[in-house]
From TrEMBL:
Keywords on record: Hydrolase
Alphabetical list of Pfam families matching this protein: Amidohydro_1 (PF01979)
Domain Amidohydrolase-related: 51-375
Matching PANTHER family: AMIDOHYDROLASE-RELATED DOMAIN-CONTAINING PROTEIN (PTHR43794:SF11), AMINOHYDROLASE SSNA-RELATED (PTHR43794)
Domain of life where this protein originates: Bacteria
Record's keyword annotation contains Hydrolase: yes
Keyword Lyase: no
MF (Gene Ontology): hydrolase activity, acting on carbon-nitrogen (but not peptide) bonds
InterPro entries on file: Amidohydro-rel, Metal-dep_hydrolase_composite, Metal_Hydrolase, MTA/SAH_deaminase
Official protein name in the record: Amidohydrolase family protein
């Protein structure tokens, strides 16, 4: 049994406890959450800072970890995609080593669960051996409607290689077809299949859907692909795609950098189980732009946080993502950001019975946030995994 106290304990089940006490068994299962304790108890581990639940990384690409530092920053999404395509296929003996190091980095940074995007089964074995809870989204990439069956079959085959939980997902609006979405919709009628969709990461995506102009037209030309079958829809991608997504599944819309207030309001017309995901570190790395966070206050849907990949970020730390948002939006409370970083992600991954908040019976992990002042993160704030 272990006992922990700190200046503050954020349970996310009630108001923060000042100098409260968390009692766990040796495996990390919470036995008690107390508002007070015996100051003379020699077994209590005492810390300066705030104790919080383990973090949930709602969006990552573990299989791209070997691309850390190899993709130039600040050139926009289309240039980034071209570099990833050109670089990831090259023989690299360090792929597995980089994946393993990234997994350990996340665990050290207090991340206890990850929603991870995979195009292959290269991460399967490491995920089985990791203490982190992984849900893998097997990503289908293909704008050509004639290839929808092939994409589904390949994704199902890849999913079967994983022992940890998996589901099938489209990549992004600019790499999917209505035919693929229809097949996915039918597939989702028969099983639980949460979806993670890259959404409006670039304004070029909206131009492509509205007018069939911009960098994505050139992108496909450079790949030598004829896309005569694609016709402009005179709509933003969200307005075109969301109506085609299944009602019965949890849906994560990732990035949302160019999501408009009109797009946010549009969702009210549908009975979709939507979650938002922000990856601010990656957004600054790729396009030096952040989402209009205020727009999402008008939404009833929960917000989560992700790190994206080491191809598009300097590290895999949810605390660093929180710090970026705090640097740009000091009016957002620490507790608000903490919910984004923990319980909301746990709910999206359907892990909230065990993770995401500090409650008796849960085993959420305990993180210590140091250099925490006046209920705000600072540039010097750090995370230490306690259990």
């Amino acid at each position: 049994m272990r006992k922990f106290t700190a200046d503050y304990i954020f349970t996310l089940e009630a108001e923060p406890l000042k100098n409260g006490l968390i009692v766990t068994d040796d495996e990390g299962k919470i036995l008690a959450v107390n508002e007070s304790f015996d100051e003379k108890d020699p077994e209590i581990e005492r810390f300066n800072g705030a104790i919080v639940p383990g973090f949930i990384n709602a969006h990552c690409h573990l299989e791209l970890s070997h691309l850390k530092g190899k993709i130039e920053s600040g050139n926009g999404l289309v240039a980034f995609l071209k570099e990833v395509i050109a670089t990831r296929g090259k023989e690299n003996k360090d792929v597995l080593k980089a994946i393993q190091a990234a997994d350990k980095e996340m665990w050290k940074n207090g991340i206890v669960a990850v929603g991870d995007i995979s195009n292959t089964d290269v991460t399967a074995k490491i995920k089985t051996q990791s203490p982190i809870h992984y849900h893998t989204f097997i990503e289908m990439v293909g704008l050509d409607p004639a290839k929808a069956d092939e994409l589904m079959e390949k994704a199902i085959e890849t999913a079967n290689a994983f022992e940890t939980s998996v589901s099938l997902t489209p990549h992004a609006p600019y790499t999917l077809s209505k035919a693929l979405l229809k097949k996915l919709y039918n597939y989702c009628k028969h099983k639980v299949n949460p979806i993670s969709l890259h959404n409006q990461e670039s304004d070029e995506e909206n131009k492509f859907y509205r007018y069939k102009t911009g960098d994505f037209v050139k992108f496909y030309e450079d790949l030598g692909l004829n896309i005569d079958y694609f016709s402009p829809l005179s709509k933003n991608t969200m307005q075109a795609i969301v109506p085609l997504l299944p009602e019965m599944q949890r849906i994560l819309l990732v990035h949302n950098v160019y999501t408009s207030l009109k797009d946010v309001y549009m969702l009210r017309r549908f009975t979709k189980n939507i979650f938002w995901c922000f990856c601010p570190g990656a957004n600054l790395y790729i396009d030096n732009k952040l989402p209009a966070f205020d727009f999402f206050k008008q939404s009833d849907y929960p917000i989560t946080l992700g790190t994206d990949s080491l191809a598009s970020n300097h590290g895999l730390s949810i605390l660093e993502e929180m710090k970026i948002i705090h640097q740009h939006r000091e009016d957002f409370s620490f507790e608000t950001l903490l919910k984004w970083a923990t319980i909301n992600g746990a709910r999206f991954l359907d892990l909230d019975k065990e993770l995401g908040s500090l409650a008796v019976g849960k085993k959420p992990g305990l993180n210590l946030i140091s250099n925490f002042k006046n209920n705000h993160l600072t540039e010097k704030s750090t995370v230490k995994k306690l259990i």
